[in-house]
Design the sequence.
């Protein structure tokens, strides 16, 4: 069973540009969550999508947005990039609705964004 | 909101047991997780515990939960050099079960 696939793995942008990151979840998983990881702030929740709808949102400015397609693949977009947006962006997929037990998140390897 | 705290660094000798500690503030946390991150990689789920449990054992891993003190620990028996990594504890509430709140991570260094 293929894992969570994130593309691109590495990218470099300059301030003011915008970027789109892609996440393909595990087959059958309907929920996709995005996290930002930086040395200063650690791992922070960005948002979660389930069945093409944003279900949860973290405390990030409106420059950060996302969407989910009917095949559960998700993209996140950051507009007007700032130096502080340099981070590892992690995507996680899950079934989304636990019947019993924990709703286990499986993470991808991440997309490392560097803003110059 | 939820806050999760961990000690930042732990050094152990190969073959010894490692104990990584975590405290959390939100008593409504339903599930508590331990993730492992190796350099250049994403997060790997190690184990999790439901809030109504006190202990969970999974091969070399033992999770202890003290709900009264809101304290969670991960014990790794017979620690190996391959266990060197950053370990994160995370909590999730029943309403936001995909919204994990992570601690800052504990860097485990295993030396011969």
Sequence:
């Amino acid at each position: 069973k293929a894992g969570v696939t994130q593309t691109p793995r590495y990218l470099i942008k300059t301030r003011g540009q915008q970027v789109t990151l892609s996440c393909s979840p595990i087959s059958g998983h309907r929920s996709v969550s995005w996290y930002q990881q930086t040395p200063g702030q650690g791992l922070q929740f960005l948002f979660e999508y389930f069945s093409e709808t944003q279900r949860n949102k973290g405390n990030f400015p409106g420059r950060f947005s996302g969407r989910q397609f009917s095949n559960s693949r998700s993209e996140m977009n950051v507009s007007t990039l700032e130096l502080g947006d340099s981070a590892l962006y992690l995507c996680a997929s899950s079934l989304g609705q636990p019947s019993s037990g924990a709703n286990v998140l499986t993470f991808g390897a991440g997309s490392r964004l560097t803003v110059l | 909101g939820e806050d999760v705290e961990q000690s930042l660094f732990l050094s152990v000798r190969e073959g010894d047991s490692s104990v990584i500690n975590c405290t959390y503030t939100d008593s409504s946390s339903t599930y508590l997780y331990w993730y492992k991150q190796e350099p250049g990689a994403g997060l790997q789920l190690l184990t999790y515990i439901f809030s109504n449990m006190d202990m969970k054992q999974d091969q070399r891993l033992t999770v202890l939960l003290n709900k009264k003190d809101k304290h969670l620990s991960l014990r790794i028996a017979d620690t190996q050099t391959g266990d060197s990594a950053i370990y994160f504890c995370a909590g999730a509430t029943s309403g936001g079960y995909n919204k994990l709140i992570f601690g800052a991570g504990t860097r485990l260094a295993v030396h011969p």
